[in-house]
Amino acid sequence: MTQPSHNEVNRQQDLISYFVRLGDDAIVLGHRMSEWVSNGPFLEEDIALGNVALDYIGRARMFYGHAATLSGDGKTEDDFAFLRDEREFQNYLINELPRGDFAYTIVRQLMVDLYNKHFLQALKSSADETLVAIAEKASKETSYHCRRSKSWTLRLGDGTAESHRRMQLAIDEIWGYSHELFETDDLEKRLINTGIAVNCEQLKALWLADIEAVFNEAGLTIPELTWTVRGGRSGYHTEHLGHLLTQMQFVYRSFPGATW
Amino acid sequence: MTSLASNREMQLISTKSSLQYEREQFRIESNVPHLWALLDEVTDPEIPVLSLWDIGILKDIKQQDHLVTVVITPTYSGCPAMDVIREDITAALTQHGIAQVTVELELTPAWTTDWMTNKGRNQLRGYGIAPPVDTVDRELTHDSQVQCPHCDSHATRMISEFSSTACKALFQCNDCREPFDLFKHI
To answer: Are B27 and B108 in the same domain?
Structure first.
């Protein structure tokens, strides 16, 4: 029996890491959105937020679940979600920002949903068949998410003076976190070369055109860029992720193996 | 002259699509018809009038010696009913003396409401939920017209694109004033 070569081991490890970071993006945002449950502005919206949160958490399960299968060392999706610390999470920072007010949540959601629209479309052409399957599934849901985020952005941006003020404020606060979405690190570069990962750098123009169209219609403006924050893909996070993880992981860590 | 209204009526007639036909043929050709019949008793936990077959998430049943493998596909990624559905399938088969059951989740091809059977659509309507084929709008708007499952009026408005579960949208009928869910096309 031949041992897998060093390169093969590394390739497998890269693939696992890619699945895990995509799972990280999904679970962190899904958890953030779930914080709205019972805090939504009205009942129907409360339910809508919960539904979208579930779609994201469902994605995380698909990504983590496959990472666990690839690991082949008895790990499960729960190990990835609940037993890793802050520095091991590689989600984009935009996903971990606190939920803020409703305008803040909608602006973040619009940015991420539109990003996912292009990301998942590109992921459908991946050389990895599981990534393709997840992308096919998730992109159907994302079209619903995008419509909802867009219609709220129009309604609030073009609504009252107060709703407009809050939306613009949220955009100004979040915009600096959007650039990281379109950068690739060494891991992704290696996986782009083998046709597995999406080259996010190529998505920026498409995303920007979509965002501009919605903002123009809503009477909102893209701020002049003065600052950029990055670090999520390297495990450097804002102070908010640690707080999120303590809440999300507490039960699992306190009662290992608990089920209901 | 064909009016817009009668155009809608015509498009709402449920005919069997090629996707439905393919599914039915697949089931007919199976060598374990009794197992398919057994699982007809297992329903969606959120919509108990719909069997797993009728909603379209039951894809395959295979038997090898004592092991039965059931292949299902999730509706939405985050559908919390999937875990219950797995348990229900295992319980139903175990109850009928099958000791070894595996339930596999298959993501591709992604589930579509086009797989729902005509029987399922009718049952859904009878249950007070408009099936996906009761609107011609694929992209829902607040003015989307859906045939009201209570009074058949098409004068409706969408209240929320997300309802009690991710797969449904909340509507209200402007004629009978009743709220109802639409099972969204996906």
So the answer is: yes
In the three-class reduction of DSSP (H, G, I as helix; E, B as strand; rest coil), residue B159 is classed as: strand
CA-to-CA distance for A69 and B3, rounded, in angstroms? 56
Q: Assess contact for A180 and A233: CB atoms under 8 A.
A: yes
Residue A19 phi/psi, 5° resolution?
-60, -40
Domains in chain B, number = 2
Given an 8 Å threshold on Cβ–Cβ distance, is B161 in contact with A144?
yes
User: DSSP E strands: which ranges in chain A?
Assistant: none
Find residue B62's DSSP bridge partners.
B69
Report the distance separating Cα B141 and Cα B153, nearest Å.
Answer: 17
B7/A135 Cα distance (integer angstroms): 35
CB A138 to CB B77 under 8 A? yes
**Residue B22 and residue B109 share a domain:** yes
Q: Determine, for residues B76 and A54 on separate chains, whether the beta-carbon distance falls below 8 Å.
A: yes
Q: How would you class A177 by CB atoms within 10 Å of its CB: exposed for 0-12, middle for 13-18, buried for 19 or more?
A: buried
Q: What is the mean pLDDT of residues B67-87?
A: 89
Q: Where are the domains of chain A?
A: 9-254
- What's the topology of domain A9-254? Ferritin (1.20.1260)
Contact A80, A224 (CB under 8 A): no
Q: Which of B106, B162, B180 to mutate to test the interface with A (most CBs of A within 10 A)?
A: B162
Q: What is the pTM of this model?
A: 0.86
Q: Which A residues in the span 2-31 are in contact with B, Cβ-Cβ below 8 Å?
A: 30
Same domain flag for B110 and B176: no
pLDDT, tens digit (0-9, with 9 covering 90-100), for A19-69? 999 999 999 999 999 999 999 988 888 999 999 999 999 999 999 999 999
